[in-house]
C-alpha cells in the first residue's frame, strides 16, 4: 500500500502524519475548499462533488465571528457538481462555507472550514 507523508507546522511543533493513499484521495462524495489555506494571490475555490445536487443551491460563507460575508445562489452542472471561486477582497482568517441544496434523497447541508492568508 502506498503511503503519503504529511508534514505540518502547528504552533512551532513539527508534526508528521502517515496516511494511506486511499485516505489522502478526495472522496467520491465531498464538499471542500481548495487550496486550504488559500495564500494571496490564490483564490479559494469551494467544490461540491458527487452530492447529486438538483436545482439551485445556496452557498453562504461566514467569518470566524459568525457574520455572513457572502451569500450566493449556484447552479450545479449536469452531474450535480458545482465549483465557486471566491474572488472578492477578503481579510486573513478562518472562514466557514455552508452549502444548502436539494438532492434526489431530500435536502442537504454541507459544511467546510478554510483559511485565507494575505
Walk me through what this model shows.
The chain is mainly β. It has a single domain (27-117), classed as Immunoglobulin-like. The protein is 3% helix and 60% strand. It has one helix and ten strands, in the order ββαββββββββ. The protein has one helix at residues 21-24, and strands at 3-10, 13-20, 30-34, 38-39, 45-49, 56-63, 68-75, 82-85, 93-103, 106-117. The strands form three sheets. The protein has a five-stranded mixed beta sheet with strand order 4-10-9-6-7, with no helix packed on it. The longest helix is centred in the first third of the chain and has 4 residues, at 21-24. The chain is globular. The chain starts with a strand and ends with a strand. Mean pLDDT is 80; it is low at 1-24.
Key attributes of the depicted protein:
118 residues, Immunoglobulin-like, five-stranded mixed beta sheet, disordered N terminus
Inertia-based shape: globular
> Helix- and strand-based class?
mainly beta
> Which architecture does the CATH hierarchy give at level 2?
Sandwich
CATH topology: Immunoglobulin-like
Mean pLDDT over the residues = 80
- How would you sum up the major sheet? 5 strands, mixed
- Report the total helices: 1
CATH class: Mainly Beta
Work out the number of β strands.
10
- Tell me roughly what share of residues is in helical segments: under 10%
Provide the low-confidence segments as ranges.
1-24
Order of helices and strands: EEHEEEEEEEE
Amino acid at each position: 500500500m502506498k503511503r503519503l507523508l504529511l508534514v505540518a507546522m502547528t504552533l512551532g511543533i513539527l508534526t508528521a502524519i502517515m496516511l494511506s493513499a486511499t485516505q489522502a484521495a478526495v472522496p467520491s462524495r465531498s464538499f471542500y475548499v481548495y487550496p486550504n489555506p488559500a495564500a494571496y494571490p490564490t483564490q479559494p475555490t469551494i467544490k461540491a462533488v458527487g452530492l447529486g445536487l438538483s436545482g439551485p443551491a445556496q452557498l453562504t460563507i461566514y467569518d470566524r465571528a459568525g457574520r455572513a460575508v457572502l451569500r450566493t445562489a449556484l447552479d450545479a452542472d449536469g452531474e450535480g457538481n458545482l465549483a465557486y471561486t471566491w474572488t472578492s477582497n477578503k481579510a486573513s482568517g478562518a472562514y466557514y462555507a455552508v452549502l444548502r441544496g436539494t438532492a434526489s434523497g431530500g435536502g442537504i447541508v454541507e459544511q467546510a472550514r478554510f483559511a485565507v492568508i494575505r
